[in-house]
Amino acid sequence: MKFDALLSAGGIPEPGESLYEFSQGRSKALIEIGGKPMVQWILDALSQAEHIGDVVIVGLSEADGLTCTKPLSYVPNQGEMLPNIRAGARKIVELNPDAKYCVLVPSDTPAITGEMVDWVLQQVRIPDDEMLYNVVEKDVMEARFPDSRRTFTRLKDAEVCGGDVTPVALSVILSSGGTWEKLSEARKSPLKQAAMIGFDTLFLALIRQLTIEDAARRAGRSLGLRARAQKCPYAEIGMDVDKAHHLEVIRKYLETKN
Asked: What is the pTM of this model?
């Protein structure tokens, strides 16, 4: 099975943010790394992935001069992350009315490869998984990127950070009055986020009594979707460029691969 890729590239660093000096008012996705825009590294990975069908980019346009061996479409920036993702999902269904799943790929994970994308997609249990969330263990991340300075969450069975290649059922994104609205409303409120996944779950996580599997199952049940989490062996999937320091780490890593 092939998954259409939804590539979110609408983020624009603001003055005062550490990445602004590199983007200068343009999309973060266009920051140069190793002689090409950051997002082009991701398009190259998607081009190499056997399980990727079409690619939809939200937030950029043909004028940005990007290339991909897979069919490539563009959707204008909707202003915020969640509306961008929903607009991209609508475009996928417009292009392929029979599509049931997509894979969400942010534009700031330039170290991923086609092999890594294929590995993630091969783990999806269809139709049981409506969302498959990847986590990267601390020792895996620090072995590959010892200077990453990522934030890790300590659970009962592991200390992890989140991964950024996420297969998800299109019905979850496009449903009216469902999970996506809950996520959108809660995005800027930690209290709403806690209520959404359940205060019992939050408390157990804080006292480190949840396993990765328990945390995903409880959050999914509260959100009304079949969600599963898995440990990902690829640190690159969790190494996104959030700050200038991350950009420095990724530039050193990718420029040695050129």
From this structure: 0.89
